[in-house]
Amino acid sequence: MSEIYDLAVIGAGPAGTACAIAAARAGLRVALVERAVFPRHKVCGDCLNPSVWPVLEALGTAPAVRALAHAALHHVRFVDLKGRPLEVPLPPDAERAVTRESFDAVMLQAALDAGVVLFAGAPLTGLSANPQGWDLSTSQTTLTARCLTAADGRNSTTCRLLGIAPHARAGRVALQCHAPLAPSYQGTVALELLPHGYCGIAPVDDQRMNLCLVSENRHLAETKATVQKRFGLSADQAWHSMAPLERPALAPVPRPGCFLAGDAARVVEPFTGEGIYYALRSGQLAAAAAVAWCSPASRATAGRAYTLAHRQLYRHRLWVNRLSRLAVTQRHLGSLLLALGRPFPSLLRHLTAKVTGSLPPA
Fold it and tell me: Could you tell me the pTM of the whole model?
């Protein structure tokens, strides 16, 4: 007989653990299903902006995250197609970088401490609705839950099993690695336009930097070779890939009692550093929806409330991400915008502050 939970969360990244922690602390019995065994590498820019701290404070994980080895970021450097740099300062404590392995470890431990039951190394293999909620099968076990949060990323198995996985837009691929820190990037996060994509660089500690390149797939080998030569990386440097980079958004409540969080619902351009914030906050909102769903008094409005809250989450800031994506996919336009930023640096500082969450929403 399968075990019965109030909430099953699929995926133990920032969205999934945020949801699991908040729901467990609200009194729900929570199962967390994760296909990998931690620690595991995850392609990510490794950057946290100020918007994450109120969420982490509410989850009780802010002190542990602040104590992690990290790099404080003080400047943003933009480099156009001609190799001309333009640097703007970041507000104090605006952004820091920590590796996803260490960040995810803190979040997962907090979930376990909150009483969440973890099924690690357990890919989801089956999913079906029943009158009481959802029946789930993994490679290890079966379980039943009254409601479900899909937080398993842009290639969500949950969405595939529900038959709602969108058709991904082919064309661009991301590669990421941790490389020896180049002295000129100490305290600096950089975005450098390339002929067929762009490269994001951020130090993650005193010795390493996160190096992430995004390229059109047909030019990936050429772009990778350019970046390896630029930073003196060996030919056998290990890279991790991520795709798709563009994918249609899904309804945050595709089925009654099912809530999508993080990249499972909406994918944003990775280089702006907002991904972890959107994941954490949407996971927190999904937990509130699960709590409402498990209460007979509020079940009827739980889905609509989550849909509205999810829409509000993206409403005020997504335009900056879209503008940023336009600048890096239309790279001559991006270089033109940087050229305009030279005589008007306050405009670039304003946009940068919007991306980092250092300004209140308009």
Answer: 0.89
